[in-house]
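Complex 336.
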Amino acid sequence: MSDEEEALALAARAGIHRLAIPTPFQVGRVNAYLIEDSPLTLVDSGPNSAKAMDELERALAAHGRAVEDIELLIVSHQHIDHFGLASILARRSGAEVAALEELAPYLASFGAQAESDDLFAQRIMLRHGISADVVTALRAVSASFRAWGAAVEVTRPVGDGGELRLRDRTLKVLHRPGHSPSDTIFLDESRGILLAADHLIKHISSNPLLARPLDAGPDFDGPRPQALLTYLASLRETRAMDLSLVLSGHGQPIVEHKSLIDERLRLHSRRAEKIHGLLQSRSRTAHEIAHELWGNVAVTQAYLTLSEVLGHLDLLLADGRVREQEQDGVVRFTAT
Ligand SMILES: [Zn+2]
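Predicted structure with zinc ion bound:
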C-alpha cells in the first residue's frame, strides 16, 4: 500500500471517507468527506452542478448512504467548489448546516456577495496594472462561474475555538484565514485527524487569494487585505499542532504536515526574494511582476497571479524592503 492509500485507510477506520467530486475548475476534483457518525456528516459538498450531484450520489451509495441520510453538512470556506451543492443537499436531506459564524451572512446572500467580490477584485486589478479589457473579460468569466454556487442558510453557526459534537468524536472548529477569509479547519482531537480543506494541500501551494474581508460592506474600498501575511500566520499555527493525518480539500492526504508547511514557508520567502531582485533594476506594477515571473498566463489566472505577487510584496513592505507609490490610479513598487 502506498503512504496515501494507507492514510486514507486510516481515515476510513476512523469513519471518515474521502469522496472526490468533479468541478469545472482548473483545480480539478474537490474532496468532500463523509463522516460515519451520529449525526451522519458531510464536510463540503462540491459545486452546484448535475455532474457533481450525480457523482456525489454514487459515492454516497458506495458507502450504503443516500443524500436523504445526511444529517449535518459542514462548510469549510466560501469557495463555490466546496459549498455550491450545500443548499440543494440541505433541502433534500433536511440536514443542519454548520459553518464559521462570520461566514454565515456571506453564504446566506451569496449572489450579492459574489457581485461585491467582483467589484472589489476589479478595483484591485485596475489599480495594479491589469488592462481594462482583461478586467472586463474576467468579470464575465466570474459572473458565469457564479452559477456553480448557491446561497445556503447556516443553521449551526460556530465560533472560532468552538466544537461540533458527534456521537463518536468532537470536532474542534478553528478559523485559519489566508487562502480565503473564512478558511475553517476541523480537528478530530482524540485521533489527531485534521480536516483542513484548502488551508493546506499536498500537491499545490494554496493560493492566498486577495479577497474582501468578511465584515466589509458591499462597496469596500479600504486598505488592501494582507492575505499572504494572514495565511503564513495561520500556517504557523497549524504547524504547531500535533497531527497524525491531514485531509485536504483537494488531492491526497498529508502525513508529514510540519515538513510540508516548512517547504511552503521556504517557497514563499524564496519568491519574495525573487520579486525583491526584480524591483532592484526598476519599479514595476504588481501585474508587470506577475508577467516577469510567469509570462502570459491565461486570462482566468490573472487575478490569482496578481494576488500571489501582492502577497509577497506585502511581506517585503512589512520588512521595509519595498515601497509602494500610487500615481494616476496605478500603484508601482520600488526596492528601497
Ligand atoms: Zn478554496
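The chain has a mean pLDDT of 96.
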